[in-house]
Design brief:
Helix content is 34%, strand content 23%. It has helices at residues 10-21, 61-69, 106-112, 133-141, 143-158, 167-170, 172-176, 181-186, 205-217, 262-269, 274-281, 322-325, 327-333, 356-371, 396-408, 425-441, and strands at 2-6, 25-29, 41-44, 47-50, 56-57, 76-77, 84-88, 91-94, 98-99, 102-103, 197-200, 221-223, 228-232, 238-242, 249-253, 255-258, 285-295, 305-307, 316-320, 337-343, 377-390, 413-415. The strands form 6 sheets. A 7-stranded mixed sheet has the order 8-7-18-19-20-17-21. A 5-stranded parallel sheet has the order 12-2-1-16-22. The protein binds flavin-adenine dinucleotide. Flavin-adenine dinucleotide binds next to helix 1, strand 5, strand 17, strand 21 and helix 16.
Length: 456
């Protein structure tokens, strides 16, 4: 059974691994000149650092399980316990405990100075339809909490706006707080033991590199620089059109897994699953850039970094003090400090059109102001991520349901990745595993070998 996986990001590579372990003949076609998608490492000032994703949610099992499965368990680390901050009202202020931005400790929130006034709880029945995070929360907890806590936290994950993002798809923990979010967030809860986030010594980008190596070891073929242009299903099998527009090659396959971002997936499905393609065409993608800096000396503040509310209208929306957050990087950096800042939100990509020097200068200016003092910059790198993060806007779960229904009606076709049910690393891995399970579940299996639960 020959399977072509389109897209060699985390979703595509995970699907390829699962398929190979089921005995399929797998080829991954990746448009870029490297695999891994948003998992990418690069050299900044002689240090190999993450230029894309840099931490993994440890409260879901899929990321840690894949790390173990790839033999990377010894590299698993957790961030230093130094906390994060919100840069607002002219200072870095400690981020209090929250449930997706809804404060669990109102006195601590007020003491932090993040809000000018203590939020007042106003219970209201939960609507039976999807609404934006802002529409859900503002009447119940007030606009300040949304502006200065919820939106920056959402911005850190989606680079999006509380007034557009769906409470059901993007903030399910907020929705679960029910009619009276402030009271519910303050109630004692069972917090799972262990760290919330994890990383890898060497960087999270290593996960994609080792995953690609494993795919090759198992006999999978990975072709980079090979953009897939179109898919068709002339009979029982598939034709995959790939390569430069002037020299498109046609490759045959029994099954196809499409693991590309929404816009590309929409184009690829236009002939074979037009309803899904139409639904995906409406998924907005936020572009952003990560500016990585190496500075000569220690920062004047402790902590792992800060988030910035959009209402404060700064250029940067967050900064991670990478070598303070990850002790392995601190040791590697010696007396220097590595930090990064993210720039760009959904619908705000003006600065991203500027040359690297301007983007770096704007980020450095904000960092100077936030920190009071930034040691001299010895190396800077701008990694642009065009169309980086899908926006789970109001109605997103209906979009996903349409896509899933339309794709399920086409034999031998599956989709997976960050577009659907979570943009974080564990959710993306789960999406790829789900796609392979569904393909395997089709009457004519991917191969004769049943899914081995031990392998998962
Ligand atoms: C800057 C940044 C920081 C992030 N930080 C974190 C973090 O710390 N923790 C976390 O959990 N998540 C983080 N995320 C989110 C997470 O990294 C992504 O959601 C996830 O990696 C997406 O994986 P994917 O395989 O779905 O998509 P992608 O990584 O986008 O992979 C899709 C691949 O498809 C390829 N492709 C596209 N079109 C075609 C085509 N026509 N033919 C062939 N190939 C094609 C692309 O080149 C790409 O390699 C971050 C995202 C960004 C952008």
């Amino acid at each position: 059974m020959r399977v072509i996986v389109v897209g060699g990001g985390l979703a595509g590579l995970t699907a390829a691994l699962e398929l190979l372990e089921l005995g399929a003949d797998v080829e991954v076609l990746e448009g870029a000149d490297h695999v891994g998608g948003k998992l990418l490492r690069g050299d900044v000032g002689g240090l190999e650092v993450d230029l894309g994703a840099e931490s993994i949610l440890a409260r879901r099992p899929e990321g840690l399980a894949l790390i173990e499965r790839l033999g990377l368990g010894e590299r698993l680390v957790h961030p230093s316990s130094r906390g994060a901050a919100i840069w607002t009202r002219g200072a870095l202020r400690p981020l209090p405990r929250t449930v997706q931005g809804v404060p669990s400790d109102v006195p601590a929130l007020v003491a932090s100075g993040i809000v000018a006034e203590a939020p007042v709880s106003r219970p209201l029945p939960v609507p039976d339809h999807d609404v934006s995070v802002r529409e859900f929360l503002e009447p119940r907890v007030g606009g300040e909490v949304v502006d200065r806590l919820v939106e920056p936290l959402l911005g850190g994950v989606y680079a999006g706006h509380a007034s557009r993002l769906s409470v059901r798809a993007a903030a399910p923990q907020v929705l679960a707080l029910g009619d009276d979010p402030l009271t519910a967030a303050a109630a004692p809860r069972d917090v799972p033991a262990g760290a919330v986030f994890a990383g890898l010594v060497g960087g999270v980008g290593l996960l994609a590199e080792v995953l690609a190596d494993r795919v090759r070891e198992l006999g999978g073929r990975i072709r980079t620089g090979t953009t897939v242009r179109a898919l068709s299903r002339p009979g029982a099998g598939w034709e995959v059109f790939a390569g430069p527009t002037t020299d498109v090659e046609v490759r045959a396959a029994d099954r196809v897994v499409v693991a590309t971002p929404a816009a590309a997936t929409s184009r690829l499905l236009s002939e074979v699953a037009p309803e899904a393609a139409f639904a995906l065409a409406g998924v907005e993608l936020a572009s952003m850039a990560i500016v990585t800096l190496v500075v000569d000396g220690a920062l004047p503040v402790e902590g792992s970094g800060f988030l910035v509310p959009a209402v404060d209208r700064t250029t940067i929306k967050a900064s991670t003090f990478s070598s303070q957050k990850w002790p392995w990087l601190g040791a590697l950096a010696g007396g220097a400090t590595v930090l990064r800042a993210s720039v760009g939100r959904a619908g705000e990509s003006g600065l991203l059109q500027q040359p690297d020097e301007r983007v770096v200068a704007a980020a450095v200016g904000d960092l100077h102001e936030a920190l009071g003092h930034l040691p001299p910059v010895t190396a800077a790198h701008v990694q642009r991520w065009g169309g980086a993060l899908p926006q789970y806007e109001v109605g997103h779960l209906d979009v996903v349901a349409t896509v899933e229904r339309d794709v399920a009606a086409v034999p031998g076709l599956e989709v997976c990745g960050a577009t659907y049910r979570g943009v974080g690393i564990p959710a993306v891995i789960a999406s790829a595993q789900g796609a392979v399970r569904r393909l395997q579940g089709e009457g004519d299996n991917v191969c004769d070998r049943p899914v081995d639960e031990e392998q998962r």
